[in-house]
Amino acid sequence: MSEDHAAPLAGVKVIEFTHMVMGPAAGLILADLGADVIKIEPTGGDNTRRLPGSGAGYFPMYNRNKRSLCVNLKAAEGKAAVLKLIEGADVVIENFRAGTMDRLGFGYEALQALNPRLIYCSEKGFLSGPYEHRTALDEVAQMMGGLAYMTGPPGQPLRAGTSVIDVQGGMFGATAVLAALFQRQATGKGQHVVASLYESTVFLVGQHMAQYAVTGKAAAPMPARVSAWAIYQVFDTGDDDQVFVGVVSDKQWKVFCEAFGLDEFANDSSLDTNNDRVAHKERILPVIKDTFRQYTKAQLMEKLEKTGLPFAPIARPEELFDDPHLAAGGGLLPLTVTDGEHAGQAMRLPGLPLEMAGERFGVRIDVPRAGQHTREILGEAGYSADEIDTLTADGTVTSE
């Protein structure tokens, strides 16, 4: 966002006690929108920085535009320093197991007494109820919330291919924080807001629950579903590639038939409505499949682009770095790898999928190195250089 448009959350101060994905995702949204987000890390740095395999991208993806303070919260001096920051903060975000923040002296009741205007966001596995003390992960929520059942083939529950519930839980947490900030303008008081993995999953499968309520028939897993449209799937092309195509309205059907010379279908009154076409799907699909095999992937996509019909290539995540739309629209942000053997390497990662006043949100602060901003943050809190040196020397904080 340019200097002509002040960031929406400029002036909002957030203290973030988080790790992994859900909590950091909530903080990322607020940070990208302009909040000053201070990430509290252990003196050795957040363990998320060191995750291998599928976790290797967690830290760089969800921690840009934040400042890093590495501090020992169990040390009296470390706790006092962080409490001093919270005294003037607007928001605290945490996603630790139930009871952890209370044991450290940073639970909601303690911090609300210190700062009555504070909005305290807890990112948890479950909202209030019989399950609230269970430990949950993204995968746990997907399994028990019905999403894994709906994603995999019958009898083969399968988690979604990304941390969709962690990210959505973070989004709901950020939404609650924004609502609480707005409400605070009227009441002058902060409050405790909670977002969760399990209920986020249930919200996602709500459409399938509603389908059962309306039809009396249970929704089948997506690979075995009965689609609401006759043409709504992945098709093979003549060069052994694939393209998804959807035709979801009667107007689109006419455009589709005209574009591909399907006069036999265009003139068939038994196919005039969407429900008619679904009923005759087994007759329609073999013809469509044969038609699409006459085109290469590039040829088919070019033709579909001209018609305005919904279509999509089947992209892999690593191919998105070269996507011309993302490159032209500022959808990929320049960042730097901070940890591991590739530290210092340039990278580009997705920005918030938002525009405000015609502009995208960019990078104010690169992905922070562990303790990169410790001295800066403590200095702003009133600590002298000598005091910071002492805290560093005794291991209460770590800094660069």
Fill in the keyword field for this structure.
400 residues, alpha/beta, Rossmann fold, formyl-coa transferase, domain 3, 2 domains, 18 helices, 12 strands, 15% strand, elongated
Short description:
The protein is α/β, with parallel strands linked by helices and 400 residues long. It has 18 helices and 12 strands.
Task: Give a description of the structure.
This protein is α/β, with parallel strands linked by helices. It folds into 2 domains: 13-204 and 330-398, Rossmann fold (3-Layer(aba) Sandwich), CATH 3.40.50.10540; 227-316, formyl-coa transferase, domain 3 (2-Layer Sandwich). The chain has 18 helices and 12 strands. A 7-stranded mixed beta sheet has the order 6-5-4-1-2-3-12, with helices on both faces. Strands 7-8-9 form a 3-stranded antiparallel beta sheet. It has a two-stranded antiparallel ribbon with strand order 10-11. The longest helix has 24 residues, at 164-187. The chain starts with 12 loop residues before the first strand and ends with a strand.
Q: How many discrete structural domains?
A: 2
If you compute it from the alpha carbons, what radius of gyration comes out, rounded to the nearest whole angstrom? 26 Å
So, the CATH homologous superfamily of the largest domain? Answer: Crotonobetainyl-coa:carnitine coa-transferase, domain 1
What general form does the structure show?
A: elongated
Order of helices and strands: EHEHEHEHHEHHHEHHEEHHHHHEHEEHHE
Mean pLDDT: 96
- The separation of the N and C termini measures 29 Å
**Proportion in β-strands:** 5-15%
Main sheet: strands, sense, barrel: 7 strands, mixed
Would you give the CATH topology of the largest domain? Rossmann fold
Query: Segments where pLDDT lies below 50 for 5+ residues?
Result: none
In DSSP terms, counting alpha (H) and pi (I) runs of 4 or more, how many helices? 18
The first-level CATH class name of the largest domain:
Alpha Beta
Q: Helix coverage percent of residues?
A: 25-40%
CATH architecture of the largest domain: 3-Layer(aba) Sandwich
Q: Output the strand order for the largest sheet.
A: 6-5-4-1-2-3-12
